[in-house]
Design a protein that fits this description.
The complex is a heterodimer of chains A (about 325) and B (about 270). Chain A is of the alpha/beta class and about 325 residues long. Helix content of chain A is about 30%, strand content about 25%. Chain A folds into 2 domains: about 180 residues, Rossmann fold (3-Layer(aba) Sandwich), CATH 3.40.50.620; about 120 residues, Rossmann fold (3-Layer(aba) Sandwich). Chain A is built from 8 helices and 18 strands. The mean pLDDT of chain A is about 95. In chain B, the strands form 3 sheets. Chain B has a 9-stranded mixed beta sheet. In chain B, strands 2-5 form a two-stranded antiparallel sheet. In chain B, strands 3-4 form a two-stranded antiparallel ribbon. Classes of the chains: A alpha/beta (about 325), B alpha/beta (about 270). The interface between A and B is large, with 84 and 77 residues. The structure holds flavin-adenine dinucleotide and adenosine monophosphate (AMP).
Chain lengths: ~325, ~270
Amino acid sequence: MEKYKGFFVFVEQINGKISEVGLELLSKARELADEKGTYVAGILIGNFSENTAEDLISYGANKVFLFSEEKFKYYYSLVYSKLIVYLVKKEKPEALLIGATPLGSDLAPRVAAQLETGLSAHCVDLRLGKDGVLEQVVPGFGGTMMAVIICPEKRPQMATIMPGVFKKHKLNRMDGNVVRETADISEEDFVPHVVEHRIKEMKTTPLNEADVVVCGGYGIENKENWKLLEKLAEILGGAIGATRPAIDEGWADEDIMIGQSGKIVKPKLYIGAGISGAMQHVVGIQNSDVIVVINKDINAPFFELCDYGIVGDVNKVLPVLVEKTRKKLFK
Amino acid sequence: MPQAVVCVKPIPDPKHWDKLYLDHKTGVLRREGVPHALNPPDKHALEVALQIKDEFSWDVAVVSMSPPDTVKILRETLAMGADRVYLASDKAFSGSDTLATAYALSELIKKKIGLFDLVVCGSMSLDGSTSQVPAQLAHYLGVPHVTHVTKVETDDAKSFKVVMDFKASEMIVECKTPLVLSVTKEVNLPRIANVMGIISSENKPLEVVSATDINADLYKVGLDNSPTKVKELFIPEIKRKKEILKGGDPEDIVDELLDKLHETGVL
Ligand SMILES: Cc1cc2nc3c(=O)[nH]c(=O)nc-3n(C[C@H](O)[C@H](O)[C@H](O)COP(=O)(O)OP(=O)(O)OC[C@H]3O[C@@H](n4cnc5c(N)ncnc54)[C@H](O)[C@@H]3O)c2cc1C
Ligand SMILES: Nc1ncnc2c1ncn2[C@@H]1O[C@H](COP(=O)(O)O)[C@@H](O)[C@H]1O
């Protein structure tokens, strides 16, 4: 067990760009590694220049293992998992962290199965136990229950972590080096065959970084009220989020869903309007500094979880809130 | 006849999760009064297989690993149109994590079904929501996997064209059998069992097997042999002010709110 050293992070690329969650995990790995007196390594697979790899050093990596070839540009689960398994067997890290993105949650279990090691999913926190074992906090039953998962006997300890739970942190100075790697991959591993790769047009929402998040639920009732909510977010210089039903109604795009199956946010101020407060949503916002809830039903569970609650109808409250906030901020 | 296998997991019914509670003395999760239900995404997985059956006359077998009293719940898959069910149920399996579950399911498939063309899973089980079993099962079965599938098309039921939704991008993937797919709820609308289905399900085979029946390696299943362990369960403690601003006039309430936010320093 002592042979296994270092915190490794698989840094995913999303359409050729380094993913935010990869940087967040490097920063967290740095913190854990410092606590344990060990090192951090990033794993980068794709078609990258060394400059990109060097960027990871400033987020905390002592080493970056770079698999860069044209044929690695697109994700193939068998190919990516073989590269990682090859590296892990050679370098023997004590932990391997992967973002709980769609790609990460496709890749990680295949890697863990090949290594016959443990893997926890969708972690919302990581910490070291007294014995130095990695404690992985995962939500169960839609966030109504939390479990601390450990992997005491197998290495590496593997986890996928929700984007947004850790803050990325750029360091002023860091020493590190890039190590070029390659492994034997046969043509047969490039299956199933990807015939088309469509990049979806998405407005990039700075939800993860916003200081203020205004979120709407089913109780917003209509598109007009939704526009008002967007206005409020704009005035507050924040971002807008939505619950699942609000997205189903077509008021907002899927990529701004907040909660267990969407984004995790921790702004200074969160305002939730027309939202009942289901745990699946609440897990995504519970680390906000201040939570404001607007709901017409005094029995809505969200009132039990808020700092300030307004019992009222959004049709009446929202227009006033928008106007008064505007006046307050732009006197 | 080509063979589809659908992985179905009975879970504590999400409608009754408010009745779950943690025994603080023992740290054990109590489920009294919480009935089982089919994991909702797995109905979409079954529907994928049933549509292929309807068009190309495949055989559809359902496999599951869960306690013996979930037999009733699994009958629902027969009423929907599955041909048979294999339930692996054994004390030796209890406490299995995803890796151990995937191993047990792979042995169940190998021993009871043998050759297969397609294994269809749900995208995640709602209780644990790991989304890990499908890829791990594919590893043990020695076949490729595709997850996050939102569309399945085929002309001949030999090669499949599926859409894999990665949120920021979408991949159109051509796959050949055998393989494992995991599908999201966008993929279809599951059928509802009708009376004929329910009646005919009574005569369809539902076999409950033990770990030894399928020769599962007992050192690879159950709590003791799962690489991950639950160290602790806890209910997230949420400490909030819970100040409710009442009063009739929205103008006054909003003023009060803005003052409070100003005092706390967030505005
Ligand atoms: C596995 C799983 C994962 C999930 N993941 C997520 C997730 O990531 N994110 C997510 O959001 N959901 C998720 N859900 C869904 C979640 O369980 C809830 O259904 C959802 O959060 C409820 O959204 P809501 O509060 O907008 O709607 P509702 O529960 O319908 O609540 C609407 C609220 O608006 C109030 N209201 C109505 N009209 C007005 C009005 N005029 N003025 C003021 N208030 C009004 C009502 O009193 C009510 O409380 C998930 C569910 C499952 C099973
Ligand atoms: N015990 C089980 N029995 C049968 N199928 C399962 C079991 N556990 C998981 N699955 C399948 O794997 C999918 C993903 O589950 P999970 O990895 O637990 O989120 C589910 O939707 C099922 O199709």
